[in-house]
Amino acid sequence: xxxxxxxxxxxxxxxxxxxNILWSDIEALLMAIGAYREEGRGSRVRFLLNEIPAVxxxxxxxxxxxxxxxxxxxxxxxxxxxxx
Length: 84
Fold this sequence. Notes:
The protein has a single domain, classed as 2-Layer Sandwich (Metal Transport, Frataxin, Chain A).
């Protein structure tokens, strides 16, 4: 995991929840920590990390992830045993 990934992980766990994290940075972080990614229909993308599954929707047309999605990613990471 490089410094950019570490910064993204810190941003995901920031309090208050941020809404300006780029989805591409979140995907890059998940791939860097060993998550398996599978494309779904439309904007859906599935991840599997440490046997924990998750399904997210890529934001569109904006590039930033909203607060609700950031909280979902945060919960996914906690369930998979990944903490900042």
